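Input (Uricase):
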Amino acid sequence: MIQTLEQFTVDICKHFMTTFSQVAYVKTYVQEVPWQRLQENGVPHIHSFICVPDGIRFCEAEQCRNGPLVVFAGIKDLKLMKTTQSGFEGFYKNEHTTLPERNDRILCAELFCKWSYGECRDFDFDCIWNKVRECVLEAFSGPPDCGEYSPSYQKTVNCIQMCILSKVPEVSSFLLSTFYLNNIEY
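Output:
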């Protein structure tokens, strides 16, 4: 039985490294895509499903022969929107600047976040992934009764990263250019 995506990728790496002496490097990638059975008037459909991602969980593991087993995990395709309390202000301006500052705008974004656990240890990967996702939602939105203002997209990204690093010690780092919110328009 597969316990977690991370453990599955670790098991695949170990299998190839211990079974095949000619293998010098292994890299695995696995993602979880959530499907939900279609229903009509509360009756489950016999064979049809709909994809309902609220963030796709993925992970990678890699190992060089005689090297450490390294595990990465992440969230992708998590669509988030703030209808207020998001600004676009305080940015560098020059002769090419055409956009005016705004202190209230809609921020709609799609998250991609990939982190490293460093060398593989005995982690509760499900718990860690859920904590990271909670940090993303908390830092993006703020408290449910009042929200939280962010003067820029970049500040929002920084707040999310800092929240994760302060609350989830198992996350050793974010990989360069593997954490971003894509602005999207609907």
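The beta strands are 25-32, 35-40, 43-51, 56-64, 70-82, 107-119, 173-183.
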